[in-house]
Structure formats: structure tokens, C-alpha cells
Amino acid sequence: MKTIFLVVPCYNEEEVLPETSKRLNKKMKQLKKAGTISPESRVVFVDDGSKDKTWKIIAKLHEKLPQMFDGVKLSRNEGHQNALYAGLMQVKAHCDAAISLDADLQDDIEAIDEMIQRFDEGNDIVYGVRSQRETDTFFKRTTARGFYKIMTHMGVEMVEDHADFRLMSRRALEGLSEFHEVNLFLRGMVPMIGYPTAEVYYERGERFAGESKYPLRKMISFAAQGITSLSVKPIRLITSLGIGIFFTSLLILLYSLIRHLTGHTVAGWTSTVFSIWAIGGLQLLAIGIIGEYIGKIYLETKARPKYLIQTWLHEEPKQPEPEQPEQQDGAAQG
Ligand code: UDP
Ligand code: MG
Known about the structure:
By secondary structure, the chain is an alpha/beta fold. The protein is built from ten helices and eight strands.
């Protein structure tokens, strides 16, 4: 029997946690009862420096059901990727595999059974892949599609329509910990680990309470983070652009010489002004992109910690859990 930990990053999730914990508790109980997972299996909530009552709720859950809920509190808000990574690193020594999922349960927890099945068949990484995107707004759907397209063009290997709902074996987690980069983009990093992998399809639901912590601004910066963390293609594009513009300028030189020699020496004010702006703009763009990479190098050389853990609520497993009466659902009331 395998010990499976569910890792759930939470940022200001007081609205969803009571319901989420109730559903996860039910699911885990069912899996434990069926003998699919060991009694030591746990749900681990990672509080990513929330400003609301999230940690209070987590602490209470742990107090009431220490054999079911663990809590990790980060010292401050580090972002989804770092919080998830922190949780995975914290549990990897205690489990056979960890499954990451969002606190809003947009990822269908019924897919967990199949994930574990694939894991038992010998897969180290099992990706949860969305079978459809109907529940998304048209806007989110198209931006997401564009995002995958751009990423693939930029040479980043990614599983399409897979977010961060995935199972990773202890071996895969150890592998992930060998990646020392500070700029985390897990969706792009995990495929680089290798090992046997599988995919499980599920339908992604809507957030049942609270609001998305990923507004458009964050989504764009997330995409830029993904590209600049994993690909040097943009820099190469700049080089090609530079070469292209250089040859164009030779043609323009030829043209203006001919104009000069044939006596049409009216000063080309329009083209001059245009060139100044065009070239100036391109140069700034190029410098900006290169600056982005230099910024990354700067952060990587500093090798700052990706997260710091303030509190860890974890009970070492003793005996198998005694039969919990149904009233335990009240634990979810934070
Ligand atoms: N999250 C986090 N830190 C942050 C932002 C988000 O840990 O700084 C968590 C959040 O609590 C949730 C998950 O990341 O469990 C995904 O966030 P959300 O559901 O808001 O994103 P969406 O599903 O809209 O892309
Ligand atoms: Mg969500």
C-alpha cells in the first residue's frame, strides 16, 4: 500500500477551505478504506502567506484530525509555484508519491483514483489533463491556447491543458529537487525530469467560492516567466531581427544614393523621422528582452531561498487511524 500526500497551496482561501477540506477528507477516507492508499496518507495545506484566516483554519483542521491534515506555513507570500514546490519538498521524505492540486478544487478529485492506478502501474509522473475547457470564459480559453502555442514555439516542452494537477513519485520529487533554479516554472520543469509518465483526463470545474488569484496581469507575467526561465529563443530572435534590419538598411542606403545621384535630393523628412522611431523602438525592445534575462541571471546567482517555512504542523504516524465517526465532518467548519 502506497502512502500518498495531497499538496494544496492556499493563498487567501478562507472561503473555500472548509468545503475543500470536507471533500478531501471524504475522498481520502474512502481511498484509505478501500486499501488504495496507506493510513499514513495525508492532505497537506501550504499557506502561502495568506492575509485572511486561512492559516487559522488549517491549524484547526490539523488539531481536529492530525492523522488527516498537515499544514505548512510559509514566512511570506511567495506565489503559487513556490508554495507548491515548498509543499512538495516538505513531504517528499514522508510519502511514496505526492499529488498537487488547487485549493478551489477546480481539479476533479475523482481523477485521483486513476492517477494512483497509473502510479501503481509504474509511472513516476502522472499529469492531470483537462479534457475540455467549456467552463472557462472565451477569453481565458483563447489566451490559454495562445500561451501554449507561444511556449511551444519558444522551445519549452509542456503538456497541453495540464496545469499543476499531477502526481509525482518520490523519485521524481528527488529529481525535481536537483533543479537548483530559483525562477520556478514547474509545468516546464517537470517534463525535463523524465521517467515513465502517463496522463489522466478530467473535466475542470469552476471555482466554487472566492475569486481567482490569477488576474490577466499575473497570467501574462506567468507566461513571460515561463519563457524566460526555460528558453533563450527570444534572444536569438533579436539577433535575427538585427541581421534583417541591417540588410534592410543597406537597401535603403542604395536607394538614397540613387536618389541623390539622380538629383532628387529633397530631404526625406518622413522616412528619417520614421526610421528614428522604428530603430529606437526596436533597440529598446531588444535591450528590454536581454535585460529580462540579465535580471534572471542576477537572481539565479544570488540563489536566494525559494521559500522559508515558518511553521510545520505534522504528526508522525503512529498506529493506524481509529475509525472516525461521521461527526468529523464538522472539522471543516473553521
Ligand atoms: N495560490 C498561491 N499563492 C499565490 C496565488 C495563488 O498559493 O500567490 C494558490 C491558490 O490558493 C490556489 C492555486 O494557487 O490554490 C491556484 O490559484 P487560482 O485558483 O486563483 O488560479 P486559477 O485557477 O484562477 O488559475
Ligand atoms: Mg483556480
